[in-house]
Amino acid sequence: MLSKDPDIQVVGEAENGAQAINKARELQPDIILMDLRMPEVDGVEAMRQIRVKNPDMKFIVLTTYDNDEYIFKGIEAGARAYLLKDAPREELFEAIRAVYRGESLIQPAVAGKVLDRFAELSRQVQVPGALSEREVEVLKLIAKGSANKFIAVSLSIGESTVKTHIQSIFQKLGVGDRTEAVTQAIKKGIIKL
Description:
Rossmann fold, 2 domains, 9% strand, 193 residues
């Protein structure tokens, strides 16, 4: 089907992942259509191994698997497009051309899952205004009544760094002094006495 298109030249085929790795190194194609489930070496591992020698290699995953884990493993391994094998011919040709131009393409059925995962990951990212680990350490010592000099020695940092952390804590918690900072941190469950 692909070789019938005048813009596309099929330079090789592989029956398994190990062959795909060898043929990719030998033939240096512009784009590789890769299935994820193959004998000997799966598609994800084949893409990883191919990219070790050729980090700019472009892959299109063409598979029957639309489950989340396969999608994300394929994308993490370097897929620039992800199509299901039941995709219309025109979509496959468009994906090849798009990836050749340096673009990415994901079928709408797969794109929804990618967006859902992205939204989930973005919720896990630290919330703006959240205290850093070091700021929490400083706050715990403030709660114990420690002076800046003691905090600096305890954490092996400069006293001016302690002052910077305290100002940041005050700003993030919306408070004006140490007592308010400790009170807010306890209310928000950041520290416990």
